[in-house]
Design a protein that fits this description.
Layout lengths: L1 E4 L8 E4 L13 E5 L2 H4 L5 H10 L4 E5 L9 H10 L3 E4 L5 H34 L4 H13 L2 E5 L5 E6 L4 H15 L6 E7 L2 E7 L9 E6 L4 H18 L7 H12 L4 H4 L9 E7 L14 E3 L5 E5 L11 E5 L8 H17 L4 E3 L11 H12 L7 H11 L4 H8 L3 H15 L6 H13 L1
Parallel strand pairs: 2-3, 3-4, 4-5, 14-15
Antiparallel strand pairs: 1-5, 6-7, 6-10, 8-9, 9-10, 11-13, 11-14, 12-13
Helix pairs in contact: 2-3, 4-5, 4-7, 5-7, 11-15, 12-14, 13-14
Length: about 450
């Protein structure tokens, strides 16, 4: 493969092959889209329109296979890719698209396995360090080595409590100090702040339970990948436990709340021991086998056998996306409404997984609130795509469905003959390959027409 236009630094999340004039509805973003240019040869679309739609869909790069349709990459396609900032590679003759896809998936799998091994090795090193007689310096040393940078614990006054790793440049040290002050001064804990100085990733995590209280962890990292983020957050949890054992709802308080519930107390009576209302229920899934629960700032965690982790967040703790996990969050709820909030979080998690989104929050209000709008719109476009070439068809189908399948009333509403309505509806059924007498089919098409 030869780079024809654009830079070589695109991040690929997959490979897709298409000879459609408009592949937009079938792209999720981040793909290497492979094509031989059949739509150009047939005159279905031009390079400018094609590249504009591919770039709009968020594709990472375009691969053009030469022969049998074209002998060379069309100049118009090269120019369009340069205008839209879309990297373009030439797939030389004799290289099957399937071989390109297989190579990309293999490289992605190897990279993911390498990342998981690095996270697992790093977490084991941090856990071993936390078990030593001097756990705080040991954890900081293990973290600094794994991040190839520096790890510092700051006191509430801004002084260094403990540190390990390479010395920082003056601009890095000043930028990290600013981040630490911002995280330490946050009204709610845990808090975090991030910045970049001289190509170094800087992060600060507040470990206390309120403004001006507790230590702050400052990190300078040579890289900014997901594995380093996971290790930093694991260290944050360990250091929080090592330096503030009574932070939040400690073991004795949780035991007291559990005893009250077992002895017949209502949730409203036990919940104040664990934190302030309203509560947010979070369902999380992902992370890989054996991965620790996501660090969301609450010790109230319930891992289930199916891999789902439920977390209960008291007031003042907002869920945030967690690398490698899909999260669904409920609306804030009173202790007596936690069962309903648990169901909301479960539905939100299903939407997050379906949309490949890190965090989805529950939205109140009717059936439409149960479906992600962008996901619904994409589904509607794909479902109704066969009708796109004839605008009269979706218009007739919408009127016919809204009038409960009445031929006469639909004809009157559209100002056409009833036989025209019958012909159009029959054409819709044929193009969609759908039974329009089926109520479930009618319902799905109705919502598709609404969202589309």
């Amino acid at each position: 493969m030869r780079l024809v236009a654009g830079g070589p630094g695109a991040d690929l999340h997959g490979v897709h092959t298409s000879e459609m004039a408009d592949p937009f509805p079938y792209l999720l973003g981040g793909e290497l889209l492979l094509t031989a240019g059949v739509p150009f040869q047939l005159g279905q679309t031009g390079p400018e329109r094609f590249v504009a739609r591919v770039a709009e869909a968020g594709a990472a790069a375009l691969g053009f296979g030469v022969t049998p349709v074209y002998d060379t990459v069309p100049d118009a396609l090269v120019a369009a890719c340069r205008r839209h900032g879309l990297p373009l590679v030439e797939v030389e003759p004799g290289t099957p698209f399937a071989a390109v896809a297989r190579a990309v998936w293999r490289l992605m799998t190897e990279a993911r396995h390498h990342e998981l091994r690095r996270v697992a090795d790093g977490q084991r090193a941090l856990a071993t360090a936390a078990a030593r007689p001097d756990p705080v310096p040991a954890v900081l040393h293990a973290l600094a080595v794994r991040l190839d940078g520096r790890a510092v614990l700051y006191t509430p006054e801004g002084g260094e409590y403990a540190a390990d790793g390479r010395d920082l440049m003056p601009e890095e040290d000043a930028a990290l100090a600013r981040l630490v002050r911002r995280a330490a001064g946050a009204a709610r804990r845990p808090s975090s702040a991030a910045d970049t100085a001289g190509g170094t990733r800087l992060v600060a995590y507040g470990l206390g339970t309120g403004a001006g209280r507790g230590l702050t962890l400052g990190l300078a990292m040579a890289r900014r990948d997901e594995a380093d983020q996971r290790l930093a957050e694991t260290a944050m949890v360990l250091l929080s436990l090592l330096t503030a054992p009574h932070q939040g709802a400690d073991e004795a308080t949780r035991s007291a709340a559990l005893v009250r519930l077992l002895l017949g107390a209502r949730p409203e009576e036990a919940a104040p021991l664990l934190g302030e209302a309203p509560w947010t229920v979070v369902h999380a899934r992902g992370g890989g086998p054996g991965a620790p629960p996501p660090a969301l700032g609450s010790p109230l965690v319930d891992p289930a056998a199916d891999g789902t982790v439920r977390v209960l967040l008291p007031a003042g703790r907002e869920p945030a996306p967690y690398p490698g996990w899909s999260l669904g969050a409920s609306a804030p709820a009173a202790p007596g409404d936690l069962a309903a909030a648990d169901a909301q979080a479960a539905r939100a998690l299903r939407r997050a997984e379906a949309a490949h989104t890190g965090l989805v929050r529950h939205r109140a209000g009717g059936l439409a609130a149960l479906v992600d709008e962008e996901e619904a719109a994409a589904h509607a476009r794909a479902l109704l795509a066969p009708l796109a070439q004839a605008p009269a068809l979706p218009e007739t189908l919408r009127a016919w469905l809204s009038l409960h399948g009445s031929w006469d009333r639909t004809a009157a509403a559209l100002g056409v003959h009833r036989n025209t309505v019958r012909q159009r509806i029959a054409r819709c059924a044929a193009l969609l390959d759908a039974d329009l007498d089926d109520p479930e089919t009618r319902m799905e098409l109705w919502f598709a027409l609404r969202w589309g």
